[in-house]
Amino acid sequence: MGSFVIKLGGSLIFDENGALKAEYLRAFVRLLRDVESRDRKIVVVVGGGAAARSYISVARDVCRNESALDQLGILASRLNASLLFTMYYDLPPVIPSSLEELVRLYHSNLPVIFTGGFQPGQSTTTVSALTAEATKSQLIIATNVDGVYTSDPRRDPNATLLRKVSIDQLLDMFSQPQKAGEYRLFDMMTLQVIKRSKINTVVVNGNPPDNIRRAMEGLSVGTTIVFP
Amino acid sequence: MGSFVIKLGGSLIFDENGALKAEYLRAFVRLLRDVESRDRKIVVVVGGGAAARSYISVARDVCRNESALDQLGILASRLNASLLFTMYYDLPPVIPSSLEELVRLYHSNLPVIFTGGFQPGQSTTTVSALTAEATKSQLIIATNVDGVYTSDPRRDPNATLLRKVSIDQLLDMFSQPQKAGEYRLFDMMTLQVIKRSKINTVVVNGNPPDNIRRAMEGLSVGTTIVFP
Amino acid sequence: MGSFVIKLGGSLIFDENGALKAEYLRAFVRLLRDVESRDRKIVVVVGGGAAARSYISVARDVCRNESALDQLGILASRLNASLLFTMYYDLPPVIPSSLEELVRLYHSNLPVIFTGGFQPGQSTTTVSALTAEATKSQLIIATNVDGVYTSDPRRDPNATLLRKVSIDQLLDMFSQPQKAGEYRLFDMMTLQVIKRSKINTVVVNGNPPDNIRRAMEGLSVGTTIVFP
Amino acid sequence: MGSFVIKLGGSLIFDENGALKAEYLRAFVRLLRDVESRDRKIVVVVGGGAAARSYISVARDVCRNESALDQLGILASRLNASLLFTMYYDLPPVIPSSLEELVRLYHSNLPVIFTGGFQPGQSTTTVSALTAEATKSQLIIATNVDGVYTSDPRRDPNATLLRKVSIDQLLDMFSQPQKAGEYRLFDMMTLQVIKRSKINTVVVNGNPPDNIRRAMEGLSVGTTIVFP
Amino acid sequence: MGSFVIKLGGSLIFDENGALKAEYLRAFVRLLRDVESRDRKIVVVVGGGAAARSYISVARDVCRNESALDQLGILASRLNASLLFTMYYDLPPVIPSSLEELVRLYHSNLPVIFTGGFQPGQSTTTVSALTAEATKSQLIIATNVDGVYTSDPRRDPNATLLRKVSIDQLLDMFSQPQKAGEYRLFDMMTLQVIKRSKINTVVVNGNPPDNIRRAMEGLSVGTTIVFP
Amino acid sequence: MGSFVIKLGGSLIFDENGALKAEYLRAFVRLLRDVESRDRKIVVVVGGGAAARSYISVARDVCRNESALDQLGILASRLNASLLFTMYYDLPPVIPSSLEELVRLYHSNLPVIFTGGFQPGQSTTTVSALTAEATKSQLIIATNVDGVYTSDPRRDPNATLLRKVSIDQLLDMFSQPQKAGEYRLFDMMTLQVIKRSKINTVVVNGNPPDNIRRAMEGLSVGTTIVFP
């Protein structure tokens, strides 16, 4: 089996009150222990979640600099990555803060690497796609829905889960102007990276974590992106 | 007027539910704008507060490595420092992560520098004392009590606020073994640094922030540490 | 006058044979000397141009890793930035390699900062928008056409230069799937950053360089992006 | 066998005239070769010794900044660490300068890591305790006395070597105010780190180096710290 | 077999028009794959070649700072090194920029390391000698002539290839003042490093690359430097 | 007045017993205070002196790696530079460890920069020439003889001090093979850098320090290097 990049959505690790979901985090760490192997590397890219949102919301009162606000979200995502590192290794965290640093760390002896955001103007989903591209890995996007739907399942009762979706279909779905509160699994840049490098990508519900294992083993779960 | 290091206790910027106190943060930033001056540098050292505690508490379930846990607290304190930088400058944060980096940044054009913890096994109060020592600054420790009391004011109704306290008296007060939940304004290492460099130090209630301005101007507020 | 970010298109500094245009580079450096001022910072973001293309084309024979190929382009753009630094300052080049480093350098005494690409999957035009956002600067995109046209002027004889164009119009124009050899002044990510931060942006022909000065002084030249 | 951190006291590597003890250094390096093993890491933390003292003493004439003076001692200890690295590996030295760098280097292929001080206000003994804590290693403190005595053996003829000593007993012994020339094996911070992480610690006379091997193998030598 | 440092002359990878020689580069990469082995490290030091010359020549019009100009050459050589890394590993390049960084990377898992120049005032041939010295490797200098001649073969029809040459003979040959366009395989500093560390050195024609393999295997090819 | 680089020979700061000369160091620091000015930068490059020699001599017993041994000398020279920084600024030292770092620090607010060696195989005198070249400064080489003599003044009673010496004459004098114990003020690389950039260079006896001031003011002292 080759290497994997797992994008762990921030929504999976915080509850609706903005508190860390300790039990989920422990279950995810156990899953990583199960799938860890000498023969491959795993990179986990964690989102910022509720921590990012609360810091950004306070700063926004007086700060109009979107780059600075994004940076707060990035730092929150690295704190989340550090938490997972600490829980996984029982050692002080080593978290790369750019693709260049990640690539260097990839040549060390760490079997699992944890990271968060890299740069303003860029989602952690894009980070996961860039990392999968740089390390020629498969990409598993673990989020809080079961995969890609025909429309927003939280608004449209007829929304159907797609087992397969072509990259061009996704580009169509997500290139429309964004409306407030709308269903946004992907941004354009992520899709463009996935497309240009034909990254083997599966979108799964990260809860329960076992879905991630299933995706790694090629079992049927979530939505698989296909290329023409 | 010389330079100042302000230790901003984590307790000042989070409410009892662990949420950031946006209004307090804005008031503190306004205070910094008032006291900023071309002729001096200000370094603000921020504690980790509730954010640090919540990450550490989740990790501790499976991680027994105190160094790793401290590191989570340090990262949380840097996130707090980044928030303040962002609110103060309306620019992406630049946060030193060691005394060496702080000293380098001190030679740049930034009039106010924000930082958090540096190293496991060391409180942010110690960081503020080390920074005051390295930069030959006065130290203002802003916390959630009005200064140093004869005993813990939350437990002892007869506790009296001390206007002045000698460094040796403090060393006596805080060298006793610590009991759970006890009143702990200082650790030994902070006091030792203050003592060896006779750092001009005032302990004030950071709320309202105007107390900090008063301490900077040498007006009567809080507790002043005196040397033999 | 505020600060400026100038994106200098790679096409401006190489001729059709892939050789550096020495005379143009000298003229651009003279322009920078003219507009330099104590009161503002200028950041110049240079593209990779023909140098980037020749390295990427050789590597692509055996390397399918788009991230690695992009990295070659980034290194070529930094070499171009170093050339300009050297010509401008007559000193060894200091070139930031990430937004974080650029922000740090922004607090130094250098009045003009030169940089190239930051990260795979991201154009130098995006770098210029992110830098303008982070430093709250106006953005001047200097390229080899006179501004934004209604259609590709190299293919359509009826193409008309737009003096003003709304950001949403641009998003429409550039969100369509890209065809080989097509007219591509912008990528989506650049436009999204410009939009979210309402960056004051002018697109000009960088040849002659005086167009850049005109844009900096608010004189009529090229195309100005307008916001609703 | 697990990993080990060895604190090598500066007093062991300089003679009374302040000259390096070449023969001792060679013997210590041979010992490291004997105990090196694929299955574990060894970190050697070296003190500054006479080199540190001579630089600090010259600087102190005109420099009152204790932080700056400590930094000279730290640089001297890193020079000592570099000497040992060079003698051990016959390669140019790679010396971490913070706990963070040390943790990164720990994931490389180097079986033995050499380091000196990290930060002003902190002894190299504290560095060794923090490193043992971060890497979950046993700690061997090699000094120029045979272990912990009931009182200062250089002053009190009735001083008795303790084979075992509880951490709380040590905290009592070393929390008293320090008098000039007094017997000071530990500082408070070292003991607090050892206590909070229950670090398996032995204090031995580093001369002959074989005592260190004995301590690593669990044989009776020096003083062992015990926990309640 | 021990480790090797291969100096790859810039002249080997550019044709007379200054274009990259794609076929040669692919052949060289294949050679590296053939000789790679778990048991040894290979460091490839690449020259700047035509890319370096073209950037330096443009800058020199207005920049008289030789240090700055050298820096452009160094950046060009790193771009060449990145190209080779990318072609060899199909991964984003990791290129050390000083001897210190190279030594650190030497302790990672990368079997082949690519680098360019380190510092102004120093040729990439000197870099290769310093690297061979630091890593105790054999040195193969691959250039565009067949080895060391009695005189410049491009000017003197009686020039004879030397199979062996003593280091002192070389020092004599290359200590004479340099005339424009003269035959310059070595600079003094390279020879001094080779001499002081008695580095096992062979000079070969890097074209065809198989000469390099022959030199690594100790077969007769090019010129071997001998020591008294 | 322009900028200056002062090479402070290690022989000036240690006595014949290898002890630091505290009085000389204080006098040199006072001199720097006298000549410091807002309008120019001063870089002081310090040699390793007796400290370097003692560490190298101990290591050489078991270490044959000249690169590693040089590195010990470099670290000793940085310790010397740190000592001077500390005495000059009464602040923790900031010491660049490469030409690149030095150039960055040159753009900070520090009026005087202290540094030591940069790289194995290179003397601190070469560092001073490279720094003068990069920063377009005048070079003052302060050593323990009165300037350049016609022959070694310690061996030849007829040796005469030269007030002026051409760079080519120096190249002749120092290109001869070196004999043990011989008079060696310059190495080839230093002279080549001085020559190629026609660096304004004066060699003076650094004791008394006032000679350095005289050289800075263009008064007659020591030996001036002249160019054809």
Automatic annotation (TrEMBL), chains A, B, C, D, E, F:
Q: What is its main location?
A: cytoplasm
Spell out the reaction equation it catalyses: UMP + ATP = UDP + ADP
Which EC class does it fall in?
transferase
Q: Which GO terms describe its biological process?
A: 'de novo' CTP biosynthetic process; UDP biosynthetic process
Query: What range(s) does the Aspartate/glutamate/uridylate kinase domain occupy?
Result: 4-205
Entry-linked Gene3D superfamilies = Acetylglutamate kinase-like (3.40.1160.10)
**EC number from the UniProt entry:** 2.7.4.22
Q: Which UniProt keywords apply?
A: ATP-binding, Cytoplasm, Kinase, Nucleotide-binding, Pyrimidine biosynthesis, Transferase
Pathway recorded for this protein = Pyrimidine metabolism; CTP biosynthesis via de novo pathway; UDP from UMP (UMPK route): step 1/1
Q: Which InterPro entries match?
A: AceGlu_kinase-like_sf (IPR036393), Asp/Glu/Uridylate_kinase (IPR001048), Uridylate_kinase (IPR011817), Uridylate_kinase_arch/spir (IPR011818)
Q: Which domain of life is it from?
A: Archaea
Listed GO CC annotations: cytoplasm
Q: Which GO terms describe its molecular function?
A: ATP binding; UMP kinase activity
Q: Which NCBIfam families match?
A: pyrH_arch
What is the name of this protein? Uridylate kinase
Q: Which organism is it from?
A: Infirmifilum lucidum
Question: What taxonomic lineage is listed for the species of origin?
Answer: Archaea, Thermoproteota, Thermoprotei, Thermofilales, Thermofilaceae
Identify the coding gene.
pyrH
